[in-house]
Amino acid sequence: MTATLVGFDVTPLEEREPTGVGRYVERLLAALVARGDTHRYHLLASRPLHGTLPTGVVGPVGRRFPTRWLWMQTMLPVILHRLRPHVCHFTNGMAPLGCPCPYVLTLYDMSLFLHARTQPLKSRLLIRSLVPRVARRAAAVITPTQSARADIIRVLGLPAGRVHVVSGGVDPAFRPLDSPDALDPVRRRYGLDRPFILSVGTLEPRKNLGRLTRALGQLRAQGRQEELVLVGRHGWGRDEARRVAEELGIAATVRILGYVPQSDLPALYALARVVAFPSLYEGFGFPIVEAMACGTPVLTSNRSAMAEVGHDAALLIDPTAVGSIADGLAALLDDEPLRERLRGAGLHRAASLRWPTVAERTVAVYDRVVAAAGAARTRLEERPA
Question: How would residue 61 be classed by pLDDT, with cut points 50, 70 and 90?
Fold first, then answer.
């Protein structure tokens, strides 16, 4: 059987501190290669990579280039002309306008269009203008939830048949932990001596950390002793939580750890009393399912993909109402039957999200695109001169 050559975009792995997108790309690539089928993966990157790459891939292709998006629009089409892959997969919402082969584009959400004020100015001015064009030229679009799919079709006007839902997976490292050997080193490393509420995600306005901090202020005013621990890479507008905490006089109870190694995350989830993810908008929300897999109750937003991913396995709140967030946190901290119900439902939900299944569904999209391209070439060759 003839091998299918896939050009695979690994530019998210150029980051030293990968976000959810970087982890998604790393895990997806590993699961694709682990299938051991006839697909071969040629990595595409504009600079050296970080993270773990599976054996059996070729590349990365690309020399160190000062700007990733400029490399993708100028150098990458030349590289792809030489490689001649059957299909390319661009994994982070951007592709070359002059791509010489059929491609699949992953779009995680429509935050650039629906919540533009929570995005950096560079993204609003540059990336937002390119996304509709590369999405309409894509042979297929992959997105992680039905909610994100509906947004993409509505905002970009794409044909529904071209937009496919392929969810994210949960790494087996995220599991319930209760042994002192697993938990105590992480507890000591970060000085987590008091009960705490954990929030994981890039520190940026869309994560709604200002309102979360105000909700903590309400709990503290009621006599509660829990701290708020924020974990994530520093993004733009990252100081909102700190400013609010200082305004409320609770700065000592808001701990901003910043980026932590992924190996520490399972223990952090397990140590937390509650994981709070009251984001204003998401296409998926890895911290939701990671916390579920670790057996920790989750509070998240009652909108966009978070309501879909959390469903009946998380406590859903109105992210625009500080009182709703505070009431939800209090319920999860105090109501033991509720905690146990969500713990069981969360473990069940997380168990259904497996990377081999993600890879299988992704390959099905590749094969559909390659077959359609082959059929189009055949029709062209059979056309009378």
Answer: low
